[in-house]
């Protein structure tokens, strides 16, 4: 029960756009002592997605697309932890701290659900293991460094096939995000090839934009189809290969497989399509729409409650012109602001006010200082649209210092070039899941071995390459492992292991495999000795000095 003598306790799940505008609209009420707002998020910073393409391509320094929440939310409180569960009966939220999982319970009078969205990692085999995502700052930082490392590797690669693989980049999803990334990448790579990577021929660079719909930029299809035509022509001139009506059906370490059967050798698949919703929503008893979003009424409140609100990507908020609001930042902002205003109105005993924001317009950058945009019904193309796009997004950067930092980056880049430091973040190899399609090699005979593998599902065969051709040594299935000899004895792979069906393997890095084998004797014995079991140890082939072990 709410105690009128105490401030109203509002807990906001998530620290994104919705939370920022909620905090702004509740600022006065917090200062008056009427409301106590606690924002819970796993990140102590906000990521500005509007400039992701600029960050990936060195126009903006990586951390300049983030803003510290400690300067965004006050006087609201900030609780930096993972949200674990919500008990709507008890009106509590349980969080666990990131250090060691220690739990805390927060009590609330009002709950704001603003959890945003997550990447859908179930869309095709291999997406989780081999495709890059653009959602979190860490995702984006990884992509940025990966792109530079591809150029470094390509410049010194002597095998033309591998070189082309390194210089082929696939962007999946032809919405605003995918188009901006693909077009900026093409421009960036060509610029770097001309200026800094003299060993790379710009003609070898390929950026493919794969889009399942018949036309790119579906966000503009009903409202501004003319802008799509301009965008299509501009993108084609810029050299990005657009594959519409095409899906990616599998991603592996070495290639992307497309729905028309084309296999594109690449080490860079960047995914900019397909979102899912936080599993936390499943813990709440509120009605959801067909996309899984929490349904709200026109006042942005969850029907059947008087103290639960939802906005942003995770909510189906009625749009004033019909339908529901799209999952873009500006609707999260205005939704958060309306929730704050209505909480205060409810506290003051006034009737709630409906959400009336109907949108300002859209803008999409197309690289090479061109864009398409529309604002309040007016259409813009080319350079004017690009200036509008940049100014519009810059205006919404949520802190003044980041606005200044970004402006500084933009002003300096023409004089000193872009930021092209590829930071190698030392991560241990660890345990990874990898996906392979039928016929693909997991390890190749003669390679230096750096991982051992366990088959999680699917089948494979061990093949010896001999002067007389290939000899299939044996088949492998779920639970079998291979690759130990090269890892433990530091020899080259003695055979190739190739998938004979779609294959999921767990791979364990050399250092980790050795540490485990030394520490857990049964593990060590299993991975070292199983290859000598009869079914994995067929008779030596002619000319073999030592018995064959699976893909050593
Ligand atoms: C690559 C990309 C490009 C985009 N480009 C644009 C663009 O150009 N223009 C545009 O308008 N929109 C763009 N968007 C969409 C825009 O970013 C979202 O619509 C907006 O961020 C939604 O705001 P939100 O408040 O709903 O959620 P978010 O801003 O996503 O915030 C969700 C918050 O919840 C937190 N959270 C979630 N689960 C937990 C948990 N279990 N524990 C703790 N914290 C949790 C997250 O850390 C985060 O702080 C883009 C999105 C992406 C991914």
TrEMBL record:
One of its GO terms (molecular function) is NADH dehydrogenase (quinone) (non-electrogenic) activity. Its EC number is 1.6.5.9. SMART domains: cNMP. CDD domains: CAP_ED. It catalyses: a quinone + NADH + H(+) = a quinol + NAD(+). Keywords: FAD, Flavoprotein, NAD, Oxidoreductase. Residues 431-516 form the Cyclic nucleotide-binding domain. Pfam families: cNMP_binding, Pyr_redox_2. Residues 530-552 are annotated as: Disordered. It is an enzyme of class 1 (oxidoreductase). PANTHER family: EXTERNAL NADH-UBIQUINONE OXIDOREDUCTASE 1, MITOCHONDRIAL-RELATED (PTHR43706:SF47), NADH DEHYDROGENASE (PTHR43706). Belongs to the NADH dehydrogenase family. This is NADH:ubiquinone reductase (non-electrogenic). It comes from Nocardioides silvaticus. The lineage of its organism: Bacteria, Bacillati, Actinomycetota, Actinomycetes, Propionibacteriales.
């Amino acid at each position: 029960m709410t105690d009128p003598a105490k401030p109203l306790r509002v807990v906001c799940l998530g620290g994104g756009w919705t939370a920022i505008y909620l905090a702004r609209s509740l600022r006065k009420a917090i200062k008056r002592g009427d409301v106590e707002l606690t924002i819970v998020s796993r990140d102590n910073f906000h990521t500005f997605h509007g400039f992701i393409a600029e960050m990936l391509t060195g126009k903006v320094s990586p951390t300049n697309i983030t803003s510290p929440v400690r300067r965004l939310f006050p006087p609201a409180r900030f609780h930096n932890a993972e949200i674990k569960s919500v008990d709507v009966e008890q009106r509590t939220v349980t969080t666990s701290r990131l250090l060691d999982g220690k739990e805390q319970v927060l009590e609330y009078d009002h709950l704001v659900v603003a959890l945003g969205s997550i990447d859908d990692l179930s869309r095709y085999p291999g997406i989780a293991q081999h495709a890059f995502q653009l959602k979190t700052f860490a995702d984006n930082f990884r992509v940025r460094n990966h792109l530079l490392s591809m150029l470094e590797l390509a410049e010194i690669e002597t095998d033309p096939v591998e070189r082309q693989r390194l210089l082929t980049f696939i962007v999946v999803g032809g919405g605003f995000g995918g188009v901006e990334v693909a077009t900026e990448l093409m421009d960036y790579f060509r610029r770097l090839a001309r200026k800094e990577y003299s060993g790379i021929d710009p003609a070898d660079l390929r950026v493919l934009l794969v889009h399942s719909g018949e036309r790119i930029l579906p966000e503009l299809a009903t409202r501004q189809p003319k802008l799509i035509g301009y965008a299509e022509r501009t993108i084609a001139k810029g050299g990005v290969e657009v594959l519409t009506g095409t899906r990616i059906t599998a991603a592996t370490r070495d290639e992307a497989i497309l729905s028309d059967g084309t296999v594109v050798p690449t080490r860079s698949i960047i995914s900019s399509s397909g979102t899912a919703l936080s599993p936390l929503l499943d813990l709440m008893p509120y009605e959801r729409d067909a996309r899984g979003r929490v349904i709200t009424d026109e006042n942005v409140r969850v029907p059947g409650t008087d103290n639960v609100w939802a906005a942003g990507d995770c909510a189906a908020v009625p749009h004033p012109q019909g339908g529901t609001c799209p999952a873009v930042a500006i609707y999260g902002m205005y939704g958060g602001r309306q929730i704050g205003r209505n909480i205060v109105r409810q506290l003051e005993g006034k009737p709630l006010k409906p959400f009336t924001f109907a949108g300002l317009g859209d803008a999409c950058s197309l690289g090479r200082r061109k864009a398409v945009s529309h604002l309040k019904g007016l259409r813009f193309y080319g350079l004017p649209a690009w200036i509008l796009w940049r100014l519009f997004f810059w205006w919404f950067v949520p802190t003044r210092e980041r606005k200044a930092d970004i402006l500084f980056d933009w002003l300096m880049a023409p004089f000193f070039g872009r930021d092209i430091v590829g930071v190698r973040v030392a991560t241990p190899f660890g345990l990874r899941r990898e996906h392979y399609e039928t016929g693909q090699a997991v390890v190749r005979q003669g390679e230096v071995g750096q991982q051992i593998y366990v088959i999680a599902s699917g089948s494979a065969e061990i093949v010896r390459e001999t002067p007389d051709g290939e000899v299939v040594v044996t088949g492998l299935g779920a639970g079998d492992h291979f690759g130990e000899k090269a890892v433990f004895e530091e020899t080259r792979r003695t055979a190739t292991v190739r998938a004979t069906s779609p294959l999921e393997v767990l791979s364990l890095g050399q250092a980790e495999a050795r540490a485990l084998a030394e520490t857990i004797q049964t593990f060590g014995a299993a991975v070292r000795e199983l290859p000598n079991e009869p079914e994995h140890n067929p008779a030596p082939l002619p000319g073999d000095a030592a018995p064959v072990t699976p893909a050593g």
